[in-house]
Amino acid sequence: MSRFQLDLSNEQMLAQKLDEIYDELGFQCVRIDNLEQQYQGIDIILKHDGINYAIDEKAQLHYLNKDLPTFTFELSYKNQNRDLRSGWLFDEHKLTEYYFLITGIEARTPITTSTDFKSLKITSVNRQKLIDLLESDCDLNESKLAKYDSELRSNRAFGKEPINELNASTEGALYHTEHLAEQPINIQLRLEFLIRSGVGKRIWPV
To answer: What is the pTM of this model?
Structure first.
């Protein structure tokens, strides 16, 4: 099985596990298979208390059996033609209302069924509140982050890059990834910072 096929299989098994969790939480969940809606940043529609929410699921499946304290939000990347593109965080075409960050995924490997997932965490992050937090509390609007982004790419600075607006130990930093073909630049934020700021909420385990 190729790496792509393996990733796809793991994603499908994780989706089944997540659907079981959503049901236990009392959510009505509809998975989106329409490519246009998926490109708009909608993996699932959750209905809760009569209201529909557009959710983009982001899972750390490449970090199985590790519990990372951070999550990365994409600022920019390079496409197959090596052209620079805006990342999904500030993409005005995305209709995402909430990110569900799936972290701390413990599983038996190889993953063949949803029962191979032993435990995981789900942190719900309100997209607009996150953008507002960065802009108003951290003085990091889209324009300023784009300037940092440009400087990192010009300097070919890879890895973690602390910035003055964020406490690198308790809040976050920028991160330029070299080993991926897309060479994305992300803003890497600590989950506890998001929860403490009222932007994120741990919804699983309850």
So the answer is: 0.95
